[in-house]
Amino acid sequence: MESQSNLKTLFALFKTQQKYLESTTEPSGPVYQEHLRAAIATIEECSRLVDNLSLFSRNEGEDDIASTDLQYLSIQYHLAELTLRDSLTNRRTVLKRAQQSYENFLSLLDAYNILSKSDQKFQEQYLNNRNEFSLLAGRDATSRRDTKIARYKQEKQLKSNIELLSYDSSALENDEVVLRDIYRAEIDLHTHNTFHALDLISQELQILSLAPPTLPTHPGPNPSDLDSRQ
Asked: N- to C-terminal Cα distance for the chain?
């Protein structure tokens, strides 16, 4: 029988797999890709459990989510991040799958009114034109530079907040408020990274769309066959 304890165990397994993938030095090697597929299978099973347990409801608010369950809001984000590392599948297929997972992640956050006003604007911009989404669209050179600097500072601050909140490990076990703050800070960082990733995916899809189609390769005649005709 499926339960939240199963989900907790499975998600802990995923975090272990994730740490291994982040520590490896050969992301394109066959061993890495094997471990990557195992991690993808784990996080996909986590997603299935969340759905079966009806853990999240679009009729609820953020305050209705248990502190320990906030981390599961990012499951689709993690799936997208892993999907992008797949070097064995057709690249366009990989990009489209990751794009959909990122979109699912944002949709869930939007349903709980977790997105900031600026992120809501980015989400609306993305939904209006998925294939040409850009964080710097319609801006002059000075505005683009300012946006890049602002987003860099934001990412640095978000990471600093998480590190600061996670410093006292004993507090994580005994203080629900601290635990909740950490998960919310992680969600904010994941949201920041999501829009950056969607921007890059859009650029790569545009480049792929301009590439000439790959012609099927036909094996040439066997030299022995040519010899036999002479």
From this structure: 72
Contact 103, 111 (CB under 8 A): no
The phi, psi pair for 209, rounded to 5°, reads -70, -25
Q: Closest Cα to residue 196, out of 119, 139, 94, 124?
A: 119
**Which amino acid is it at 98?**
A
φ, ψ for residue 133 (rounded to 5)? -65, 135
H/E segment holding residue 36: helix 30-52
pLDDT per residue as tens digits for the range 73-118:
999 999 999 999 999 999 999 999 999 999 999 999 999 999 999 9
C-alpha span between 155 and 104 (Å, rounded): 22
Spatial separation of the C-alpha atoms in residues 125 and 45, rounded to whole Å: 31
Q: How many CB atoms lie within 10 A of CB 18?
A: 16
- Residue 173 is which amino acid? E
Residues 6+ apart with CB under 8 A from 206: 131, 132
Closest CA to 51 of 76, 27, 31: 76
Model pLDDT for residues 182-227, shown as the tens digit of each residue = 999 999 999 999 999 999 999 999 999 998 776 555 555 554 454 4
Q: Which residue has the tokens 């369950």?
A: 69
